[in-house]
Amino acid sequence: MKVAGIILIVLGVIGLLVFGIQAANDSESFSLLGMDVAVSSANWTPVIISGAVLVVGIIMAAMRRK
Fold this sequence. Notes:
Blueprint: H1 2-25, E1 27-32, E2 35-40, H2 45-62
Antiparallel strand pairs: 1-2
Helix pairs in contact: 1-2
C-alpha cells in the first residue's frame, strides 16, 4: 500500500508540473483600450486530476497497516 502511494505521489507531481506549465502557456493576450487583457484557453482538467492523484497518493502512503 505504501509503495503504491509513493508511485501515485510521483505521478501526481509529474502531472502537475507538465500539465500546469502547459496550461499556463495556453493563454492569449490582446490590447483593449490601451490595456493588455489575458484570456486563458487552457484545459485545467488534467491539472485537477493530477492534484487528486497526488492527494490520494499522500493518503495511501501515510496509512498504517493494522
